[in-house]
Amino acid sequence: MSGAKGPVIIITGTPGTGKTTHAQLLAEESPVPLKHINVGDLVKEKNLYEEYDEEWQSYTVDEDKLLDELEPLVSAGGIILDWHTCEIYPERWADLVVVLRCDHTELWERLENRNYPLKKIQENNDAEIMEVVLEEARSSYPAEIVVELRSEGTEDLEANVARIVQWIKSWTQDHQQ
Ligand code: DAT
User: Fold this and answer.
1) Strand extents, DSSP E, the chain
2) What does the pLDDT look like over 20-74, one tens digit per residue?
3) Beta-carbon contacts of residue 147 (< 8 Å; ≥ 6 apart)
4) pTM, full prediction
5) How far is the CA of 175 from the centre of ligand 1 (A)?
6) Which of 95, 99, 65 has its CA nearest to residue 78?
7) How far, in Å, CA of 57 to CA of 40, rounded?
8) Does the residue 174 lie in any domain?
9) Residue 104 has what pLDDT?
10) What keywords is this UniProt entry annotated with (predicted)?
11) What is the pLDDT of residues 153-165, one digit of tens each?
12) Of 3, 18, 94, 141, which has fewest CB within 10 angstroms of its CB?
């Protein structure tokens, strides 16, 4: 959101692609302070959901409540929104949208390690193969602010964070008052 103190960076991707891992490292390495919001955790902590689905082990989010909760945080700027979807946010919020991608066999292992039920692993794996989150990002934001990055190993993580840090430096220069 232009004019804010720091950029608003959306990190999205299928569960397990590495959003939280990236957001944590980015918050540490950023040249300007960035607050990392794990949106899924926020939904649980602040009861921003309509119900919990036992079978899928997931929350049905109350989108209006969530947006009301996030609005002041986003307006203050300097924030990373870490969540597996990005299409509910107003388009004007985002300065950069990072979509993390992962090979599906690697992703399967990561989700198994989380002890997800089999059908939840399958659903997420299919979504990754079908590029659901990437399509969502591309249809919700201008092409020039959407970046697709591979997140399969530590080298990817480090290179991705270094690249976003460079982007933040140039964003900060462009937005100096
Ligand atoms: P997400 O927040 O997208 O659900 P995560 O950051 O919790 O994903 O990562 C899931 C697991 O995969 C976690 O054990 C860390 C590992 N991981 C993710 N991205 C990685 C990468 N680029 N290199 C090595 N491990 C990674």
Assistant:
1) 8-12, 35-38, 49-53, 58-61, 79-82, 96-101, 146-150
2) 999 999 999 999 999 999 999 999 999 999 999 888 888 899 999 999 999 999 9
3) 96, 97, 98, 99
4) 0.96
5) 31
6) 95
7) 13
8) no
9) 95
10) Hydrolase
11) 999 999 999 999 9
12) 3
Asked whether residue 31 is domain-assigned, the answer is: yes
| CATH number assigned to the domain comprising residue 123 | 3.40.50.300
Q: Is 17 close to ligand 1, i.e. is its CB under 6 Å away?
A: yes
Mutate to test the pocket of ligand 1, among 10, 19, 20, 21 (most ligand atoms within 8 A of CB): 21
The answer to whether residue 177 sits within a structural domain is no
Q: Is the CB of residue 154 below 6 angstroms from any atom belonging to ligand 1?
A: yes
Question: Measured in angstroms, how far is the CA atom of residue 174 from the centroid of ligand 1?
Answer: 31
19 lines ligand 1 (CB under 6 A): yes
Atom of ligand 1 lying closest to residue 17 CA: 3
Average pLDDT, the chain: 95
Ligand 1: does its nearest atom lie under 6 Å from the Cβ of 153? yes
Total structural domains in the chain? 1
Mean pLDDT of 131-154: 98
